[in-house]
Specification:
MetI-like fold, 2 strands, two-stranded antiparallel sheet, 16 helices, mainly alpha, 1% strand
Length: 343
């Protein structure tokens, strides 16, 4: 196990170099005047210098390999340039928005994973029975609905009609307290910070705003995870060792929980890893529909305003998340299935 982790960590820099090269290749399609925003640290630089001066200053008229080295140097310093849409440096914008996405992901991951696995297991146990047909219909509807359609339905019902779950992250009164009061920001996650500040009114208000996005994400990913779990469970249920366990007189509950479910979790773990990556990546559509100010909405705003610097910065950020998530998923294989020899 330790050998595998060490080998993957040593391989990590090579993967990151590949990610940066891909981003740089995309950047090479832009003109030097478009690229110069990736090197500007503040808008004040534009007041005293022309674009031609800045292009020469940052070496954007030099060969590609020199420009790549200079860009990586800035990257290692944590400098991804200035974002005109966020009106701040890219690293600052990502650091401010990422806690919001983490908060949404954490509240969504637990019900999605456990709910999807539980429903998939029930569906497989009751194969071709009414409960199985209901679960499959539930999954097909959820997986067929586009994110923005289901999100708009949730927004219309729970906010437009019932007035329960408003968009955004906080109500105006709570946002005023957080920004101007004695409220201390520890993590950037409203629910966690509200608990640490003993402000249960803000905690409940944050949950109200999280409810509709969580329902939307949970239902869409439940549907997918249910289908994967069901298919994997049905495949394992037909294995010889499962029939042997039943022949020995083991109860159905023991057979399913001890012999079937664990072996069926291998493809589920892979899907769960991709799901976690998608949630942490921001779920652009869901955050945009509910005006939830996370990484996804930040990226969407940057794309709408052709903010090249921000788009390249968030693309690189997503690449780093992908590498780390894949590493975690591979390591989890050893705990799920002892037959996997990572060493």
């Amino acid at each position: 196990m330790l050998t595998f982790i060490a080998r993957r960590l040593l391989f990590l820099p090579i993967v990151l170099i590949g990610v940066t090269l891909m981003v740089f290749v995309v950047m090479s399609f832009l003109t030097p005047y478009q690229l110069v925003s990736a090197y500007i640290k503040s808008p004040e630089e534009l007041k005293n210098q022309s674009l031609d001066d800045l292009v020469r200053k940052y070496g954007l008229d030099q060969p590609a390999h020199i420009r790549y080295i200079n860009w990586v140097k800035n990257l290692l310093k944590g400098d991804l340039g200035y974002s005109k849409s966020a009106n701040m440096r890219v690293t600052e914008a990502i650091s401010k928005r990422f806690p919001a996405t983490i908060e949404l992901a954490l509240f969504s991951i637990i019900p999605v994973i456990f709910g999807g696995i539980w429903l998939g297991t029930i569906s497989a146990k009751h194969y071709n029975r009414p409960l199985d047909h209901i679960s499959r219909t539930f999954a097909i509807i959820g997986w067929s609905l586009p994110d923005f359609v289901f999100g708009l339905i949730m927004l219309m019902i729970f906010y437009g009609v019932l007035g329960w779950f408003p968009p955004g992250r906080l109500s105006m009164w709570a946002d005023t307290i957080v920004l101007t009061g004695d409220f201390v920001r520890y993590t950037g996650m409203n629910t966690v910070d509200a608990i640490l500040n003993w402000r249960w009114d803000i905690f409940l208000d944050a949950l109200r705003h999280l409810a509709a996005p969580i329902i939307t994400l949970s239902y869409l990913w439940w549907a997918y995870l249910l289908r994967i779990t069901r298919s994997s469970m049905l495949e394992v249920l037909n294995k010889d060792y499962v029939r042997t366990a039943r022949a020995k007189g083991l109860g159905e509950k023991v057979v399913v929980n001890r012999h079937v479910r664990r072996n069926a979790l291998i493809p589920v773990a892979t899907v769960s890893g991709s799901m976690v990556l998608g949630l942490l990546g921001g779920v652009v559509i869901v955050e945009t529909v509910f005006d939830y100010k996370g990484i996804g909405l930040l990226t969407a705003t940057g794309a709408q305003q052709l903010d090249y610097t921000l788009i390249l910065g968030t693309t690189l950020f997503y690449g780093l998340l992908l590498v780390v998530t894949n590493l975690i998923v591979d390591v989890l294989y050893a705990f799920i299935d002892p037959r996997v020899r990572l060493e």
